[in-house]
Amino acid sequence: xxxxxxxxxxxxxxxxxxxxxxxxxxxxxxxxxxxxxxxxxxxxxxxxxxxxxxxxxxxxxxxxxxxxxxxxxxxxxxxxxxxxxxxxxxxxxxxxxxxxxxxxxxxxxxxxxxxxxxxxxxxxxxxxxxxxxxxxxxxxxxxxxxxxxxxxxxxxxxxxxxxxxxxxxxxxxxxxxxxxxxxxxxxxxxxxxxxxxxxxxxxxxxxxxxxxxxxxxxxxxxxxxxxxxxxxxxxxxxxxxxxxxxxxxxxxxxxxxxxxxxxxxxxxxxxxxxxxxxxxxxxxxxxxxxxxxxxxxxxxxxxxxxxxxxxxxxxxxxxxxxxxxxxxxxxxxxxxxxxxxxxxxxxxxxxxxxxxxxxx
Length: 360
Fold this sequence. Notes:
The protein is α/β, with parallel strands linked by helices. The protein has helices at residues 35-46, 78-89, 101-114, 130-143, 170-190, 225-246, 265-273, 276-289, 293-296, 298-305, 337-351, 355-359, and strands spanning 8-11, 69-73, 93-98, 119-124, 149-152, 196-201, 252-257, 262-263, 291-292, 314-317, 325-328.
């Protein structure tokens, strides 16, 4: 696969063909005046009385993605792997950002075994390091002058208290700040695309965010693994809503996706990190209420590829923890403008990256 400091390219190009980079018709998102400001409120209204596919939105509903370039963080496992598989199966060239390149190698081989001619590319990415994020973004921009889809998918869940390379609480730093930094750095090439989309993976754990104190995002002196995870996932949802608002009248839109209880390696890792008495109940709960990773990934795939997807909205399973992806109402408490602005300012301050600088 090549040395660890070089991009790993697999698929059609590696076997003498060409990845799907040709010009293709891409769906465009109508962005009239004020669309970003009111899109989330429109999403709330459309939650009532809307018509969903009778059998639910499925992978077969994904439009042709030929000619598109998608970036998927954590595309080497769980939801990211299934997202990468479907995007490749529908013609997209997928750039995987992965911390574990050996695991990424195995994931690519697995996809190639089931998707003939899949066009894949791998770069090292550690979302817990702003320096790694900067290198990854530079490599991606050098290889691709235009990016159509960015899946802010990777994450850590309910881990013991710790810090990232830059001193942030591990979950807030990785799940939110890392993806914020990546989005800002890739925004210039997303804006080049005819209709770029950014999709943030949130979680039902957003309801377990505790106090959600943005004056103490690192939870100094009050750390709880699940509250920290919930805080990071609530922040991911709010980041998507606020990003979409700030992109008003531009050709990039943002969405949030909740996979429900998806049976992924993230769940296994989280269970192992728990105390012995809590591992069993958690595994059983996921086993009963969970759904396959491929089904959980449909929420972010719909947000990314459905031509009718509502900008600034949340897509989640029909039955809360499982089921086909549907447009989900976001409570007013998670949409307070002052809280969205506070979170955004915090992200810019901690990462030292600003929205205005990305716009040039």
